[in-house]
Design goal:
Layout (H helix, E strand, L loop, with lengths): L4 H7 L5 H5 L3 H16 L20 E8 L2 E8 L1 H20 L23
Antiparallel strand pairs: 1-2
Length: 122
């Protein structure tokens, strides 16, 4: 079941942010979609190129359970429109900030988000 990072920490405080983020949408999107399509021209080993349902998901994410000779695997699918909408929203927000004359800081964070650093965004 999908949960926010702080909910997971509350349920299982022995996990750290790096361990939790290894299974986040952001990490799966980067590793199973971005990297895999860039280098292998298809989804990664944990992703599906098709939507499990007949309708687009409200969250942009669906899961596919597959039985291969008695071995069950669970794949994630990210809706292309959902990914595109997210990219446009981020670009628009940065563009709006920079049109005010301010600049967006792009400093080295020291510890990257995926490694447990940065802001916890629900």
């Amino acid at each position: 079941m999908d949960k926010f990072e702080n909910e997971i920490l509350g349920i299982c405080p022995s996990l750290n942010r790096k361990e939790i983020r290894a299974f986040s949408y952001a990490t799966l999107l980067y590793e199973e979609i971005r990297c895999s399509y860039s280098h292998q021209y298809g989804p990664g080993a944990k992703a599906a190129s098709w939507n499990m349902g007949t309708q687009p998901s409200r969250t942009g994410v669906t899961y596919l359970n597959e039985d291969s000779n008695g071995i069950y695997k669970r794949y994630i699918h990210f809706d292309v429109q959902w990914i595109g909408d997210g990219a446009i929203a981020v670009a628009s927000a940065i563009d709006a900030i920079e049109h005010t004359g301010m600049t967006v800081q792009r400093n080295d964070p020291g510890t990257w988000w995926v490694d447990g650093g940065g802001t916890n965004v629900p």
